[in-house]
Amino acid sequence: MGIFDFLILVAIASICGGIGQSIGGFKLGSGGCLMSAIVGFIGAIIGKWIAVELEFPQLWTITIDNQPFPIIWSIIGAALFTAILGLIFNKGDKR
Predict the structure, then answer these.
(1) d(Cα 27, Cα 48) in Å, to the nearest integer?
(2) What residues does 63 pair with on adjacent strands?
(3) What's the chain look like in SS3?
(4) pTM to 2 decimal places
(5) 56, 61, 91, 95: which could form a disulfide with 51 (CB 3.0–4.6 Å)?
(6) CA distance 24 to 81
């Protein structure tokens, strides 16, 4: 995988992670784009695992340098990941 392909993959993961964080309702730190990219990649792993286990189809997958990246499952996985972290870290926060 070349540097250009990697940067495109990071940009797509950042967008998916940012959308997932917005849906999940919890902002992870002040890492900005880098934190969104990490959440997007973790979301892709979680979402793809859920889709495979429940035998759901791969929805809207982008292939970059023969590496598939599931957009919809990445957003769903990122939303679940941030929602779970929000429940864990906001336990004592009574707003």
Answers:
(1) 22
(2) 68
(3) CCHHHHHHHHHHHHHHHHHHHHHHCCCCCCCCHHHHHHHHHHHHHHHHHHHHHCCCCCCCEEEECCEEEEHHHHHHHHHHHHHHHHHHHCCCCCC
(4) 0.81
(5) 56
(6) 8
Contact 74, 46 (CB under 8 A): no
Rounded distance between C-alpha atoms, residue 76 and residue 51, angstroms: 10
Distance CA 85, CA 79 (A): 10
Q: How far is CA 34 from CA 9, 37, 42, in A?
A: 12, 5, 12
Q: Tens digit of pLDDT for each residue in 17-30?
A: 888 888 887 776 66
Could you give the CA distance from residue 58 to residue 70 in angstroms, rounded to a whole number? Answer: 7
Q: How many residues does the chain have?
A: 95
